[in-house]
Specification:
The structure is a homodimer of 337-residue chains. Chain A is α/β, with parallel strands linked by helices. The first copy, chain A, has helices at 11-20, 32-48, 69-75, 108-120, 138-147, 173-176, 193-202, 220-235, 256-268, 283-287, 304-307, 319-327; strands at residues 7-8, 25-29, 53-57, 79-83, 95-98, 101-102, 125-130, 151-153, 184-188, 206-210, 215-218, 242-248, 272-278, 295-298, 316-317. In chain A, β10 (206-210) and β11 (215-218) form a beta hairpin. The longest helix of chain A is centred in the N-terminal third of the chain and has 17 residues, at 32-48. The A-B interface holds A 27, 32-33, 35-37, 39-40, 42, 54-60, 68, 70-71, 74-75, 244, 246-247, 249, 251, 254, 274-281, 285-286, 288-292 and B 27, 32-33, 35-37, 39-40, 42, 54-60, 68, 70-71, 74-75, 244, 246-247, 249, 251, 254, 274-281, 285-286, 288-292.
Chain lengths: 337, 337
């Protein structure tokens, strides 16, 4: 299959919804990794709907939280077609969500390899979850594991996910709801991002089945490494007096309750803070603030402190981490928060 | 003077305007280079106006065009205090502009050095302009040059500037309006950005008097080097068939007329294009679009193709450059457009 065919962009549904809603100006938003795969399909949409004006968002789309509502309003688009995520919040601009399931399916051989590995680590009861793109194979994996005598739990989805067994970067409710029933979690996913989040949230062994790489990986040592880094980051913030509180600009990343909670503790502890609104947090943007702040607390997206590729010079904390720093109470890692 | 004192942030005016307008929630926007210098003053504002809620924008503020209106609306701020630029467009959110004049003034010795240099290059009639931060010394420079027999022209400001003699990255009207009267332009500025724009706009010799570095620099060879690069970029776009038209997200960078002009020529020439809305253009964001486009045309800010620090892999053109590419007509460089 050619690379444009790796994902099912469900053009029929897109065409149907645009016609049904009589949309005239459509803003299309696609996650960074899928943008180049989607663009060739846009040509088909344009030729099938020649009266519709299509505009593509070229900015990042990290999740449903990053819905390009502000852009749609400015451009007076009457529909957002958001690809690759499920709905995160109810937007003011009409929006449809296209799952973009992967057509790369884990082979039976790979699932049998997973079975042996779980037996090796004596995991007889496991949680099973998947990122949206691979949810289409969750039942196949469940069936084969159960045929091999492993008990599989798939939890109910959380507030920011749509399907049972689905997890996103900041919602692991599906795994957490069955965390007490299992000895390990299996995640169908590529990359490090989602398995890491799952590990930080559940604090259990995580085994990844990766359909892209056709590989089974025990993620536990990687997750441990990150946990060590996070506690180091917490430790080096203990003397901080001035906090920069990063406030999200996107509606899905604006969390006023978390902001006021944190500010209240800061006031109680006689420390100071300034609110800083930031769309995308980078080391460059923090560096521009100079040495004024001792540490930053990110209230927008809990993944920013953990996953930034470039190392932040100053301590950059999640609200959960900041809570430990400010109260001085050592706790088990809380994620996401 | 301590570095927080390098610029006059006019706190009295800020306090007066906040009180006069009875603002309760104020979003403060400062250009990247001044952010760390302004932050210590924010403490004073907070203590003098303890009932006012201050939020700082941590995202770039490249110009008045980049006014954080969308952020202010989302945060329900009732006033934007925008520092370091003059008004670019009339915003919906009440906004005040604070000039932030530099307190680093060119010495008389340096201005005399400028005089000798202008005599060396036989420039008897010169245009004089300055970036906003250094406009406070334009009359001193003019006086000393004229005392030395050099005729000095200061042009009327353009649509995106406020003061005569003021230039910004995309408005050189003040220099262009007297371009036919002069043999060279003198600019009071640090850095390369503004002298380069002045050279591209006027195509005359540019001499920079830099109060920060206490130095006179003839910018002409640097400007020539950039012009060569631009014509190379134009040349390597000649076979392009598919254009990505970058549309600005910020109101001050959204130029629908330029977009539709370019699209019309593209249609006439039987080439194709897709509109891509992008807040900040980076090589990373363009690279995420893969190989779908042969070249990009930036309709948001004309400085993006020219000034990006990281080299763009694909050709990235200003509308003026794209016009040459699409019509095949070789013209003198047009900037800004």
């Amino acid at each position: 299959m050619s690379k444009e065919e790796y994902y099912d962009f469900n053009l029929e549904l897109i065409v149907k919804e645009i016609l049904r809603r009589k949309a005239k100006k459509v803003l299309v938003q696609v996650p960074d990794g899928l943008k180049h795969l989607f663009l060739p399909h846009l040509e088909e949409l344009k030729s099938r709907l020649s009266n519709v004006d299509f505009i593509v968002s070229g900015d990042p789309a990290y999740g449903g939280c990053f819905l390009a509502e502000a852009e749609a309003k400015m451009l007076r688009a009457d529909l957002i077609v958001h690809i690759g995520h499920t709905e995160y919040y109810r937007s003011e601009v009409p929006s449809i969500y296209i799952e973009a399931f992967s057509k790369t399916i884990a082979s039976e051989g790979l699932i049998e390899e997973l079975t042996s590995y779980l037996k090796d680590i004596h995991a007889k009861k496991v949680g099973l979850c998947a990122v949206l793109q691979h949810l289409n194979m969750i039942h196949k994996v469940k069936t084969i594991l159960e045929e091999n005598g492993i008990k599989v739990f798939i939890g109910k989805h959380g507030p920011y996910t749509r399907y049972n067994g689905q997890i996103v970067g900041c919602d692991y409710v599906s795994a957490l709801s069955i965390n007490d029933d299992v000895e390990a979690h299996v995640i169908i996913s590529g990359g490090l991002f989602h398995p890491l989040g799952l590990g930080l949230a559940t604090l259990r062994p995580i085994v990844k089945i990766d359909p892209y790489e056709n590989k089974i990986t025990d993620m536990s040592s990687y997750i441990q490494k990150i946990l060590k880094k996070r506690y180091w980051e917490i430790m080096r913030s203990l003397d901080a007096e001035k906090f920069g509180i990063i406030v999200g600009f996107r509606k899905g990343q604006f969390r006023p309750k978390i902001i006021s909670n944190i500010e209240e503790i800061i006031r109680e502890k006689k420390k100071t803070s300034v609110r800083i609104v930031m769309d995308i947090v980078t080391e460059e943007r923090l560096a521009n603030l100079g040495n004024f702040f001792d540490a930053y607390i990110i209230t927008s997206c809990p993944r920013i402190p953990i996953d930034n590729i470039v190392k932040f010079k100053k301590p950059v904390l999640t609200p959960g981490e900041a809570h430990m720093v400010l109260t001085g109470k050592l706790e088990k890692y809380r994620f996401p928060w």
